[in-house]
Design a protein that fits this description.
Elements: H1 9-89, H2 93-106, H3 116-129
């Protein structure tokens, strides 16, 4: 065509090389960002796994403590039931008071008993008086 400029092949080649180098630089930059992102993700994954393992260990420990506490509560409950059964077999306060009263009645130290000789003497005295 009439108005066309002659194509400078060197300039075109230089421009293509420049654009190709620029594209290569950009691609390397993107690849480096992707590598850094992958490294961060890998680090985060490792941290999450470590925390999950730590959490699992802690949950196991808590579970063992709960099991131990449950066992202790069961033991305590059984002991309370045993004590209640034993208390059912013991004397009540009223029963103890009744026993005390009975003992006081037949206690030779505080009770006034009459001996056979004393009774005979008293009977003789009563007979003589009458």
């Amino acid at each position: 065509m009439v108005f066309e400029k002659p194509i400078d092949e060197k300039a075109v080649a230089a421009e293509l090389v420049k654009r190709l180098n620029e594209s290569g630089r950009r691609i390397r930059g993107v690849e480096q960002r992707i590598d850094r992102t992958e490294n961060r993700i890998r680090g985060i994954e490792e941290t999450v796994l470590e925390q999950m393992n730590s959490l699992k260990i802690e949950l196991d420990r808590i579970s063992q403590k709960i099991a131990s506490a449950t066992q202790q509560l069961t033991s305590i409950n059984n002991e309370i039931l045993r004590i209640n059964r034993e208390l059912g077999k013991t004397a009540t306060k009223q029963e103890v008071k009744e026993i005390e009263t009975f003992i006081d009645l037949v206690n030779p130290i505080t009770a006034k008993f009459v001996t056979k000789d004393e009774l005979e003497r008293r009977l003789e005295e009563l007979v003589k008086k009458s």
